[in-house]
Every structure is written in structure tokens, then in C-alpha cells.
Fold this sequence. Notes:
The chain starts with 13 loop residues before the first helix and ends in a 9-residue tail after the last helix. It is 55% helix and 12% strand. β2 and β3 form a beta hairpin. The chain contains 6 helices and 3 strands; from the N terminus they run αααβααββα. α4 crosses α5. By secondary structure, it is mainly alpha-helical. The chain has a 3-stranded antiparallel β-sheet with strand order 1-3-2. It has a single domain, classed as Winged helix-like DNA-binding domain superfamily/Winged helix DNA-binding domain (Arc Repressor Mutant, subunit A), CATH 1.10.10.
Amino acid sequence: MAHYNLPHNHGQHIDKVLDKMPSEEEFRGVSYLFQQLGDPSRLRILWLLCHSEECVCNLAAAAQMSAPAVSHHLRSLKQGGLITSRREGKEVYYTLTDTVQAKLLHKAVDALFEISCPTHS
């Protein structure tokens, strides 16, 4: 057990908590995921992709945004590991990745909007 030079001892055993605290790198990774939700347009696109697989043109129309703006947000979401894409002919389709983090964010976003997932009704 590491020794932490804490200025006060309040008898709450913070040493046990500190021994389990994630690394700085892990905090950066989770922080980046939360940053993805910090933009309303990106959040709208993510919400759509939680519930369907779509192309840029349909996402742009649904979100009432330009295709270049949607593409910008899609790049960010893809770099964050929240969405994935597949090509079918000339069309590229985007959807939520099949990761624990992405599924958790899907549930959190749905809960925050107090809605039920339309694809699981």
C-alpha cells in the first residue's frame, strides 16, 4: 500500500480509495468521451446513431445541418471510438460502436432525455 502524505486525517480511509484511483491516462480517456457529449450538434448526431445506422446525407437532413458540418462531428465521434463506419458501394454508413463505453453512453443519454430507445420497444 502506498503512503500518501495527506495534510489531514479525517478517519475516512482515503488511502484505500487512492490505491484504486485510475491513472492520469485513464482520466484523460474518459474525459475525452465526455467532451464528445459537450456539443449539442454532436450529441444530436450521437443520439441518432445510437438508434439507427445512417449516411451523412440523412444525418444532415435529420439534424438540420450541412453535410460538411455533420462530417466534422462524425470524425470527432469516430476518433473518440464512439461510432464506426462501413462502406456499401459509394455510401458510407455510421452507427454506434459495439463497446462497453458506447453502450453505457447510449443508456446514459437516453436516461438523461428520459426516453426509451425506439429500437428496443
